[in-house]
Each structure stands twice: as C-alpha cells, then as structure tokens.
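Tokens in:
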C-alpha cells in the first residue's frame, strides 16, 4: 500500500485506511471478484437457517423480524438497538476496527452510507442481484445507496419533503399557503406582525434542513468521485437559499426553539410555530407528540425557489446495509430484501413508515389513506408527488457525518451573531475541505 493510502478517517473512528485505488479494509479477499449469489443460494440459506444480527433503531423492524422468523422458522433475527444514528455509527466503527462483534445487517442513514462504501466496510449488493431492483425505488433513495458502480444498501424508507402547516392559525390570520419561498417570507411577516409570539417555523441551525433546502434549490455543493471531492457552497442554488433564509433570520421571523425539545412540541401544539418543512415521516410524530392539535394541521407541497417549479428534496431516511465483516451474508441479504423490497414493506407502512418503493407510492390504497390527524386529508398524495420530484443528482460527502458535526460551529453562528448565512456556509465549506485534506482526500475547492 502506498503512502497515499495510509490516511485514516480518524475524526469519527472510521479506522479503515482509505483506498486510493485499492480495497483497504473489510474482507481479507482483495481479489476484486465478487461471487454472484442467485435466488437458489438465497433459498438454500433460508432453508438451512441461522442467526442474523441486525443493528437498527427503527421501531417497525420489530414486527418485520417477527414475521420473517414465522415464515422461516430456522432463522433467528437478533434485533439490537445499538443507539440512534451517531451512537450506532461509533459502535459500528469500533467493531469494524476490532474486527469483532460486527453485525450482519446495519441501519445506516443515506447521508452516512458513502463513507462506509468508500472504505469497503459494507458489501456491494450487486453480487446479490440488487441492481435488478433499480426501478423499484424512488430516485432520491436509490441514488443515495449508490457509490461509484456499487450498490451498498437497500433503501429502507424515504423522506420526501412537504410543508406541514397549521391551518387553524393560517385561517385565523388570513394567511394563504405559500407556494414559493418568497411568499413564505411574506407569510412569516404577516403572522409575526399579527401575533408577535407566533413564528412561521423554528430554526436554530440544522444541517439536515439546510442541505435539503439546498438540494431543492438545485445547489450541488458536493462533488464526489472516489477520494476526489469538491465542496462549494457558492453556486446559484445556494445563493437562492441564503438570500431568502437570511431575511427570516435578520427579521427574527423564526422561533429560536430547538427542534425535538419540549418547547418545540409545545409550539407546534399551541400555534406559536406555524409550519414545519420536513420529511414525510413526520405524521407519526405529530400524532404522538402534538396530540392537542389534532385536526389543525395539514400537509402541502414544499414552497418553490422559482415560481411554477415543482422540485422537492429528501430529508432523512435510511438504508439497510451488510457490513463486510458480518457473517451469514446470503441470509442477511434475504432479510434485507424482505424488509425493504418484499412483504416487510407493507408491514412497516402499516406501522407508520414512509416507503421508498415506487409500487407502494403508487398504490391506490396508500394514496387514498385518510389522516384523521390532518382533518381527513389524503396526505400521502402530497408526499408521493414530492418523492417523484426529487432530483436524483445529489451527493453527500464521504465524510458527511463529520461535516454535519461542525455545522453548528460554522453555519450555526448565523443564528446567534452578526455572521451572515452565506459566510457561515463558506466557513462550513472551508472546515469540510480542511478535514477532507487531512484525511487524505483530494479536495478541489
């Protein structure tokens, strides 16, 4: 291995050496040839049985695992909650480094998957026929599980974005549902003038929301080609976002309440936080966390950066991947395919998950589902339309987990100081580029 191959992704403990043109970690077999696994192999594995250890925090998998075990009595699905997102990633990275205790299946969010793919820490599923499922998923999630020529997970769910809004509040103050972000700013002004305690939304700086809005605006801040990356928040799409969102910050039109806090739930319930631009997975959280506002809220298409456009974006979502050091690969893949492409999808939908599968997104029963919480609205139609309108050309950095961890130290300053949002993004760009170079990436900008 050359000296250029010895850099480590130290910051988050992803300790496999970067592969600058060669496999660096994972399997000890560096031949480059993948054994093709057919349907017969999967059926044989299911017949023989065994144990599959699955690390995941997503609650609907519990029923999926139980159903799978019932269908295949010789299979034992050991479902382990090793923590949510970053906590699990640290545990997974430690297990990979030690080459001990690595699960057979791991839930990995879309934004984090590429770093595992780059270091060959997860298995390319093309050998199992995953490429034949390309037409089964909506474009955003399917694009997110690919890296180079490989497919490193199957989409578990998706988060096409919508604008959730408090219809009761909007009706009270005669505010029309905004169709553009400029109209959204106008609505924010009108609402806050009518009730100084009410805000159009809450935002104290969130990497996920920011990247999603950039995605929708047509920005392409990240370019990735193996270990060659580009980071640039200065394109036209990014300027659309910063120029508009800066108005909300400057005029103090967004609530300074942190998302998912008790005050945040209270604001959603009492009308002082009037909208929420987020993923289609949100309805279950309204039902469980904002019970008192049942009937007040509705879902609408995300406002557009250009009047008349129809672009959406993804916010959140996960894949199920096979760590390269895991065992029982055929059995593990059979479970992943069942959960994310087979009968398990319907089970998860019934328990509140939002699918990434086009078949289910187009299913009449799914589209006609009435949400009692949203006053009987058939909200899945809004979400399904958004899923089809997500540009498929978005990329995350292969060290996005680190990049997101320094968001508050850079962009976050725009919410608590005189720092402008554009300057905060430039600082985030510089910090992300600096880290990439330190880890051995070639960074264009």
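Residues out:
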């Amino acid at each position: 291995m050359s000296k250029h191959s010895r850099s480590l992704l130290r910051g988050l403990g992803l300790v496999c050496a970067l592969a600058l043109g060669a496999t660096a970690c994972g399997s000890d077999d560096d031949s480059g040839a993948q054994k093709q696994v057919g349907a017969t192999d999967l059926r044989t594995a299911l017949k023989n049985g065994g144990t599959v250890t699955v690390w995941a925090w997503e609650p609907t998998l519990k029923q999926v695992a139980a159903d799978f075990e019932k269908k295949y009595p010789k299979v034992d699905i050991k479902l382990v909650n090793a923590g949510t997102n970053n906590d699990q990633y640290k545990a997974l990275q430690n297990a990979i480094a030690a080459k001990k205790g690595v699960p057979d299946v791991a839930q990995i969010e879309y934004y984090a998957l590429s770093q595992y793919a780059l270091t060959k820490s997860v298995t390319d599923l093309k050998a199992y026929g995953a490429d034949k499922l390309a037409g089964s998923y909506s474009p955003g999630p399917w694009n997110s599980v690919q890296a180079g020529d490989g497919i490193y997970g199957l989409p578990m769910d998706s988060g096409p974005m919508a604008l959730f809004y408090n219809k009761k509040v909007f009706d009270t103050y005669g505010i029309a549902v905004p169709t553009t972000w400029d109209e959204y700013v106008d609505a924010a002004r009108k609402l806050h003038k009518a009730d100084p305690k009410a805000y159009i939304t809450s935002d104290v700086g969130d990497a996920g929301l920011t990247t999603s809005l950039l995605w929708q605006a047509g920005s392409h801040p990240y370019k990735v080609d193996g270990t060659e990356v580009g980071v640039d928040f200065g394109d036209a799409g990014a300027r659309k976002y910063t120029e508009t969102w800066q108005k909300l910050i400057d005029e103090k039109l967004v609530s300074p309440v942190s998302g998912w806090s008790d005050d945040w739930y209270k604001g959603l319930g009492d009308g002082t936080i009037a909208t929420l631009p987020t993923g289609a997975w949100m309805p279950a959280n309204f039902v469980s966390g904002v019970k008192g506002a049942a009937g007040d809220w509705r879902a609408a298409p995300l406002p557009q950066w250009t009047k008349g456009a129809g672009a959406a974006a993804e916010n959140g979502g996960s894949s199920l991947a096979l760590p390269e050091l895991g065992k029982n690969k055929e059995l593990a893949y059979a479970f992943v395919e069942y959960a994310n492409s087979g009968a398990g999808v319907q089970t998860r939908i019934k328990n509140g998950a939002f699918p990434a599968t086009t078949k289910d997104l187009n299913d009449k029963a799914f589209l006609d589902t009435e949400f009692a919480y949203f006053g009987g609205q058939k909200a899945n139609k809004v979400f399904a339309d958004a899923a089809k309108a997500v540009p498929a050309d978005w990329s995350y950095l292969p060290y996005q987990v680190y990049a997101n961890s320094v968001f508050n130290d850079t962009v976050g300053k725009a919410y608590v100081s005189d720092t402008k949002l554009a300057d905060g993004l430039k600082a985030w760009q510089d910090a992300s580029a600096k880290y990439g170079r330190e880890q051995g990436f070639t960074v264009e900008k």
